[in-house]
Amino acid sequence: MPTTLTAFADVTTSDSALRRFLHGLPGVDAVGLEARAASLGTRSIKTTAKAYAIDLAISMIDLTTLEGADTPGKVRALSAKAVHPDPTDRTTPTTAAVCVYPDMVATAKAALNGADVKVASVATAFPAGRAALPVKLADTADAVAAGADEIDMVIDRGAFLAGRYLETYELIRSVKEACVRPDGSAARLKVIFETGELSTYDNIRRASWIGMMAGADFIKTSTGKVGVNATPANTLLMLEAVRDFKAQTGIQIGVKPAGGIRTTKDAIKFLVLVNETAGEDWLSNHWFRFGASSLLNDLLMQRQKLSTGRYSGPDYVTVD
C-alpha cells in the first residue's frame, strides 16, 4: 500500500494544489450528519453488552491532568489510578494512557514503572498553539526525550482558518519528525483540531484530511479547554474520514474525542458510533481513545452496580 507521502504527493506540493483537493472533498450535510449521530445514540444496549462496553471504554481512556496546579504527587496518584482504576477489583482493565504536560512525563513514567499504560504528553504550546515553530518542536522533543510514548499536538487554528493549509500540513509533518527517537522508534502522534473553533463541519473534514495526509497516528477533536469539545456529530464526521482514508490508502488512523464526555451513557454512544461507522477494527485502544478524567469515575460506579446490583455513589471512587 502507498504511504501518506506517496499517495498524496501531488496535492501537497503547493498551497493551491492542497486547497483544490480539500475544497473538492464532498460537502458535509450538517442536518444529515447530526440526525445520524442522534439516531445511533438511541441504540439500546443489553446488560452483557453493557458490561463489555464499560470495560472497553475504561481501557480506552487517556486519564488526563492538564492544569497549572499539577504536582508530582498528583501525577503519581493519577498513574496509580490508571494501573488499578478500582483497587478493590483487580479485574478492572487499566486505562490506555496517562496524559500530562511535558515536564511531568518523567514523573508519570517512573510512577507507572513498566505497567501496560502509555504516557501521553501534550506539546506544541498546548492548548492555544501560539508559539514559533522551533518552540513547538523543542516542546515535542523534550517530551519524547523524557519518555513520552505518545504526543498530543495542536494545530495552528489561525493558520488553518486563514486558508494556509500547506503551513498546517508542514507543521504536522515537522512534529511527526520530532517524535522520532535516535534509535529510530517513535512516539505516536495525535493531532488536535480544536473542532469547537473550526466553525463548520466542512472545516473539520478538511482538517481531518490534512492531519491524515501529514502522518497523524490519531486525529483528535479537542483540547478540552474551550466551550465546545467532542460531540457525537463531529466525532462521527472524523470516523467517516478515517474510514474513507483507509479505504483509499490502506492506512488506518485512530480517533480521539476529548472534552465533555463524562458519563457511561455518553461513552457507550460513542462506541456505537465507532462500530457503526468505522467498524470493529477501530474498537480497541490502539485506534480509539477517550480524552477524559471524570468519565472513569462514572464507568467504575456503573461497573460496580452491574457486578453487585448496588450503586455505590461518587464516594466509591477517588476524584483524581
Can you walk through the features of this model?
- With 320 residues, the chain is α/β, with parallel strands linked by helices.
- It contains 13 helices and eight strands.
- Strands 7-6-5-4-3-2-1-8 form an eight-stranded parallel β-sheet.
- α5 crosses α6 (105-112).
- The longest helix has 18 residues, at 232-249.
- The model has no long low-confidence stretch (mean pLDDT 94).
Q: Topology, pairings included?
A:
Layout: H1 4-7, H2 15-23, H3 30-40, H4 47-59, E1 61-64, H5 72-83, E2 97-100, H6 105-112, E3 118-122, H7 133-145, E4 150-154, H8 157-161, H9 165-178, E5 188-192, H10 201-214, E6 218-220, H11 232-249, E7 254-256, H12 264-277, E8 290-292, H13 294-308
Parallel strand pairs: 1-2, 1-8, 2-3, 3-4, 4-5, 5-6, 6-7
Helix pairs in contact: 3-11, 4-12, 4-13, 5-6, 7-9, 9-10, 10-11, 11-12
Shape: globular
Overall helicity: 40-55%
β-strand number: 8
Span between N and C termini? 43 Å
Sequence stretches where pLDDT stays below 50 over 5 or more residues: none
Strand order in the largest sheet: 7-6-5-4-3-2-1-8
Proportion of beta-strand residues: 5-15%
What is the average of the pLDDT values? 94
In DSSP terms (H or I, runs of 4 or more residues), the helix count works out at: 13
Helix and strand run: HHHHEHEHEHEHHEHEHEHEH
